[in-house]
Amino acid sequence: MFTLPRLIGWLAATLLALSLTIAAPSAEAQETVTPSDRVTRNVVVRAEPSTSAAPVDKMLPGAILPLVGDVPGWFRVQLPNGQQGFVSKAWTDLSSARLATAGRTFKVHVIDVGTGLAIFIEGQDFALLYDAGSQDDLAQGPNNRVVAYIRKVRPDLKRLDHVILSHSHKDHQELMPDVFDAFQVANVWESGRVKQTAGYCKFLKKVVAEGAVYHDAIASNATRAVTFSGSSCKGTVTVIEGPMMTIAPVVLGVQAQMSLLYRDAQAYADPNGNSVVTRLDLGDKRVLLTGDAEGGERESPSTAPRANSVEARLLACCKPELAADVLVVGHHGSLTSSRNAFIDAVGAKVFVISSGPYPYGSVTLPDKDIVSALEARGQVYRTDVKDAECGADPAKPGPDADESPGGCNNVLITIAPPRALTVAYVKPAD
Ligand SMILES: [Zn+2]
Ligand SMILES: [Zn+2]
Question: How far is the C-alpha of 418 from the C-alpha of 345, rounded, in Å?
């Protein structure tokens, strides 16, 4: 039997549990918080529900953050870097779940950078860039192919909420520095493996100068000094590490999150072993980005992934997490990647290969055995198809008639829940 004080205590606990249940957003109907119409500058996000608590971020007009809780006077929200904070209810509005999820569309652009990789992902409330590199089109400033493409498809865009560098190879990072000049960058994610090249040195200096929250696979909330001794880029760069990369999903926006399935900063002989493998969950679809993740040496796709290869380690640690509708194929469609066991686990029906005419060593990618193996499983889209005639085509983003390959076979994946997924080649001329 309850005594009166126990009954009151039980009632209080039950009501608290009930209010927490009501406040907790469901996966299907994420509630969101946005600055109210009277906000002209920004809403401060604080560490605790108090005006005297430290500011941790700010919401600009139009920004949307997922709701994770509700206390008197304050909404608890999830920030793009995975941390949580509080915003005043007096300056923000709670969306209805129906409004927040209606009409959400996501676009994944695999930009034709010639020989290399750059993927731009956008939702209504976030923008993300995964890699920005090329071996054969190194135009700078506004002629930078990645910057020119994003400016063409999103002339309004000022901020990239997330930039991911899969690994420090030229064909993935060389066009990055201009990106930091062209856009405000909020979060940077990379393994943290240091490569003594001018390209990586310039990238890291830009990250620090930008003041972006930096996440690596080494440590959380620590300071790391990196010294470069090259001739064209040198000196010591002091990196302040924010929350480190984990497998826990990072909320990108409403109905959008990313999972960093593979994160490793060890000094492998080949930086491909550091490739950050990222799964994007956009509405009800999944897109897997693998950078240059490999399964071993150049061998038949039927060969089992070699022990300690990225593909073998992913199969061992998180096979169910690999399932995706779209795969941006590892290492430009090379025989070093896309082992059958790995592709079986992904189970995708749409494959995108980013490649160009510039050979890797003696090999020009993709390898035809990989293309035919993937064609047997679904649709294959390639950024290298019209490279020969595209160099002088003015109908491509970036410098016109520069004779550089690429630009004509940008692959656009549009995801419009529920269920719709379309893929098309686009050529947005500037
Ligand atoms: Zn590459
Ligand atoms: Zn690479």
Answer: 23
Q: Check pLDDT > 70 for residue 13.
A: no
Cα of 275 from ligand 1 centre, angstroms: 10
Q: Using the mean position of ligand 1's atoms as its centre, give its distance from the Cα of residue 390 in Å.
A: 21
Ligand 2 centroid – CA 271 distance (Å): 6
- pLDDT band at residue 96 under the 50/70/90 scheme: low
Torsion 349-354-358-361 (CA) sign: negative
292 alpha carbon to ligand 1 midpoint, in Å?
A: 5
Average pLDDT over residues 350-379: 97
Residue 90 Cα to ligand 2 middle (Å):
49
pLDDT of amino acid 71: 85
* CA 188 / ligand 1 centre spacing (Å): 19
Distance (Å) from CA 205 to ligand 1 centroid: 22
What is the 310 CA–ligand 2 centroid distance (Å)? 13
How many whole angstroms separate alpha carbon 371 and alpha carbon 332?
Answer: 10
> CATH 3.60.15.10 region(s) of the chain?
106-426
Please write the tens of the pLDDT for every residue from 278-291: 999 999 999 999 99
Please choose, from the candidates 265, 224, 261, the residue with its C-alpha nearest in 3D space to the C-alpha of residue 241: 224
Residues in contact with 362: Cβ distance below 8 Å, sequence separation at least 6, in sequence order: none
Confidence band, pLDDT 50/70/90 cuts, at residue 40: confident
Q: Among the bound ligands, name the one nearest to the CA of residue 172.
A: 1
Quick one: tokens of 166? 């899969």
> Ligand 2: distance of its center to the CA of 259 in Å?
21
280 strand-pairing partners: 258, 287
CATH 2.30.30.40 in the chain is located at: 23-100
How far, in Å, from the CA of 55 to the mean position of ligand 2? 39
Nearest one of 353, 355, 359, 346 to 372, comparing CA atoms: 353
Superfamily of domain 106-426: Ribonuclease Z/Hydroxyacylglutathione hydrolase-like (3.60.15.10)
Amino acid at 289: L
pTM (2 d.p.)? 0.81
- Closest ligand, as measured to the CA of 354: 1
Give the Å distance between the CA of 341 and the centre of ligand 2: 21
Closest-lying ligand to the alpha carbon of 334? Answer: 1
Tell me the mean pLDDT in the region 110-138: 95
Q: What distance in angstroms lies between residue 1's CA and the mean position of ligand 1's atoms?
A: 69
Q: Which residues contact 345 (CB under 8 A, 6 or more apart)?
A: 314, 315, 319, 322, 323
Look up residue 133 and give its two tokens: 């590199």
Quote the CATH superfamily of domain 23-100: SH3 Domains (2.30.30.40)
